[in-house]
Amino acid sequence: MKISPAHIIRLYDRFEFLDKEGSGQLRLEDFAEVKELAMNPIGDRIIGAFFSPGQETVDFPSFVRILAHFRPTDKNRAKDSTQPEPVNSRTSKLKFAFQLYDQDRDGKISRAELLQVLREMLGMQVTEEQLESIADRAIQEADLDRDDAISFEEFRKSLEKVNIEHKMSIRFLR
Amino acid sequence: KLHPTSLNFLGLFSLPERALLLVLVLVFLQGSVLPLGAASSPDVSHQDKTDNHKVEAQGHNYTKKAFPVLSIDYHYIQTPFEISLWVLLASLMKLGFHLIPRLSSIVPESCLLIVVGLLVGGLIKLAGEQVPPVMNTRLFFLCLLPPIILDAGYFLPIRPFMENLGTILMFAVVGTLWNAFFIGGLLYAVCQIQPDNPSSLHQIELLPCLLFGSIISAVDPVAVLAVFEEIHINELLHILVFGESLLNDAVTVVLYHLFEEYSGIGTVSVLDGFLGVISFLVVALGGVLVGAIYGILAAFTSRFTSHTRVIEPLFVFVYSYMAYLSAEMFHLSGIMALIACGAVMRPYVEANISHKSHTTIKYFLKMWSSVSETLIFIFLGVATVDGPHNWNWTFVTVTVILCLVARVIGVVGLTYVINKFRIVKLTTKDQFIVAYGGLRGAIAFSLGFLLDPAHFAMREMFLTAIITVIFFTVFVQGMTIKPLVELLAVKKKQEAKRSINEEIHTQFLDHLLTGIEDICGHYGHHHWKDKLNRFNKKYVKKCLIAGERSKEPQLIAFYHKMEMKQAIELVESGGGVKLPAAMPSTVSMQNIQPKKPPPALPPERALPQLSKGREEEIRKILRSNLQRTRQRLRSYNRHTLVADPYEDGLNDFLIKKQKIIELEKKITEMNNYLTVPSAPPDSPTITRARLASDPQAYSVKPTSDSVPTIQVDLASPQSPDSVNLMDEFRNARQPEQDEDRGLMMKPPSEAKGPKRPEDAEGAKDQQRLMRCLSDPGPSADEDEDEPFLP
After folding, report:
1. Given a cut of 90, is residue B331 above it in pLDDT?
2. Which GO terms describe its biological process (chain A) (predicted)?
3. Residue A31 with chain B: CB contacts under 8 Å
4. In CATH, what number does B137-373+386-488 get?
5. CATH 1.20.1530.20: which residues of chain B?
6. pTM, two decimal places
7. Interface residue B520 vs chain A (CB under 8 A)
């Protein structure tokens, strides 16, 4: 995982900008300052992802670590099974996304969790019944082991046609 | 005396060979009729006519001719007849190729069509007649090219196009410029170093060479489409080559005009070059702007077409064509205008028009573009035979070699630069395919044809070289690209059936990435896309989409589309009789009996058997209903579509969603849950059910209270597909009468409960569809699965 020094400096500048109090740590309020996040339907989830469970602040290494998930994947990396999966590999990216769905960290996206996501994304524009039917349909499609929830493997499988390396990468962080 | 056995020799041939024979016979027939037409020139006939008239005017003093019982007046119908003959020939050729099984898999269609053109041209020449000047430039640019481009533009996959726009533009603009100057310059050099003996090559100056270079350098969308469609390559490569072929039109237009203008004068100053760059921007952006304006106009018009559904497709076609013509009027890039128009209007028009219009548009576009493409290739063949040719070995071979070399160098060089900016890099295999897919086609030929022979003495040599390059690329590259793709194991197109999961997660990821970009403070791709989407949702959709659908979120629209598709498939697969094993079918029936209290049954949805008497009753009701509806459909106007009240009521329906929910709550209170276990396939119940779901028997005006109507609800507990017929809506529309109307029977799973409004919706959509029947047409259904905006 080699982010160039230039990028690290850029990220640090951004970190400092967000850290209004200059405490060296970011708090929830600092994230909330970012205006566009307020309009983002899943903004709260994203902010939540930065904070490790139980922690109330984010320091710079954690900040970078989360953002490192979005570095473009190095396709030519040799598949070395002894080394841990790099943070920006396809699997890691998918795992990050999965954890955003799976708020209670039980390793599965339950129907209720999926409904919650749909509710956030679609908001007031649809009726509850429509949401439920979409959720049912989604689970029915993806759920291969019939446990009425989507596990990580099923999640990964349903996204196999999507170019995750492209979709979940920000050029800025190369 | 025809002996029966003399005709039996036909039996020796197998079916495809017989078909081929038939086709060949038809070709010969047409080949012989055309010279017949060409033989008598129009002015002679006109002269004859006027002579005849004069004779007749003075006529009655003259000897009375016998009244002509049967006469031939070919000239009256000559032009349309010939046009129709050509179109017919083209279509029959297409038919013929696909009847011969192995041929179409080895040789791409474009090659076969050129060969046919050569044959026809040759036949005509053999017959000693003047080959009709078919490759008329105006005909090509104004009639043959637009349908193909519109088809491409309307169904352009926007998301991959936008994602790779930078790459595509690099290839289109820089690549074409590079090609033009490289080929033109080196050709000039080669011409100059030619020893002075017989060749006239020395006389060719630099500017005509550059002009030639610019004509030959453009990758042709028609040829690319024709070849790439058959090799089913992965989406990225397809959109790269195809996008390049579309966008390089602007460059070609500017270069062509620039060099043509100044070839006479002989020099191009720096100022002219600078003006050329500005002109390029004007041509490109102007074309897009013109297209976008017409697109918005079309979208706006489609908002009001709910009462005149029949002419909806017309608006799409006419506005697009006018966009093309307007752009051409100002010498802007007509192709880019057409693409912009199609791409801009599509999301809004599709939200507004009926499903049938959508199908109509799709089919007409595919049909016209198919015929156009076929005609273009045939005409290329004919024009080749026609000439005029001036074969110069050096010039032609150098041109061909230079084209290849320039393309390879261009692609490799550009990819090296582009890969620095791409997230997903282009591999060597990709580069090879992009380079190899740079086919030239009829546009180059037409541009060459357009050259003024007075200014360009070497026009014929140019034309010969252009044709040779076209033939080379289409035949050699076209035929070998398929095996090469297999050999190199290039990723093929994935049969993209977008699942609802993909859609949900993709949207989720879009939001996620936008959020991350905001946190980083980086205004990247996602940020702007999000802003555009918001703007679109807030202002544009409200303006351009009629009624309630303007507020429909993308995901819901996608979901509806999916449901409709599944419903169509369900109907197509035998009307529900042969349901797939995984879905046990439960047929629920709704029996509406006015003014009779519903018989009480335990609410736990036990599975009682239908009594024989009840079954008989149901059958009687179905029968009488069918008769009634058949009578009602007898009279109709040629110009109205089969009445589709529910289609027009879509918007009303959406508005009345709430009413339905309330309604159903009321109904559930007095509800009677009677379910029938899945009947064996040939039970009379299901047969009647099938008949009842027969689209022909669809009834329009269910206002009569006295006729109890049966709603057959083929549903499965696991999937929300349900083929509801009518009465949910009737109930929705007549809420005051619902108290008496009774029973709604539901399949036993409770998961179905909350789905009812959705069922209603899905059913409603399905009703629309049941009229449209199936859509076994051209592929690319995944285009339609694309969300409205990326």
Report:
1. no
2. protein transport
3. 519
4. 1.20.1530.20
5. 137-373+386-488
6. 0.69
7. yes
